[in-house]
Structures are given as structure tokens and as C-alpha cells.
Amino acid sequence: MQKELQSIDTPMEKANFYIFPAYCKGCGLCKEKCPNDVLIWSDDLGVYGTPTVKPKDEDSCIACMICEMVCPDCAIRIERIRKGK
Ligand code: SF4
Ligand code: SF4
Question: If you take atom 3 of ligand 2, which residue's CA is the nearest one?
Fold first, then answer.
């Protein structure tokens, strides 16, 4: 059966943060590796019924994309916001 590919979107100043709960296993690696401690546990549950993650505020993310790169399950997508287009 195909996984439900619905994301929870959080707009921030430098990037849009997307979490795909159907892929997140709640391992916390993204939280560990974020250089600015942006990510916190969310009330939304992931594939194993464990918490997913969400940004704690709108302005501490520097859009480095490390969380997206380290997630072993491709559960995060960072969309950088380009200014001055
Ligand atoms: S893009 Fe970088 S700063 Fe923003 S939440 Fe991910 S790891 Fe943290
Ligand atoms: S988003 Fe990825 S790295 Fe972060 S807790 Fe979920 S599975 Fe782990």
C-alpha cells in the first residue's frame, strides 16, 4: 500500500519547513544535528506513533538544510526562501 504523503508545513523567515509524519520514526537525529537547536518534539505523531518534530519559532532557522540531509527517512523537506527575486 502506498504511504500517505501528506506534510505538515511551517513557514519560517528563511525557509519553509515540511515534515512528512508518514516517514518520521521519531529518532531525533534532526534535533541533534540542527546547529541552532531549532527543532522540538511535536504533538503530531509519526509512523510508529512517536512524536515528530517541528520548529520552535520562526526566526532561529538559518536554512542550512542539515536536518533534511541527516534524516534517514527523508521525512523533512526544507524549502529556502529566496529574497529579492
Ligand atoms: S535547516 Fe538547519 S537551522 Fe533550520 S531546522 Fe534544519 S538544521 Fe536547523
Ligand atoms: S524527521 Fe527524520 S531525523 Fe527527525 S526524528 Fe523524524 S525520522 Fe528522525
Answer: 71
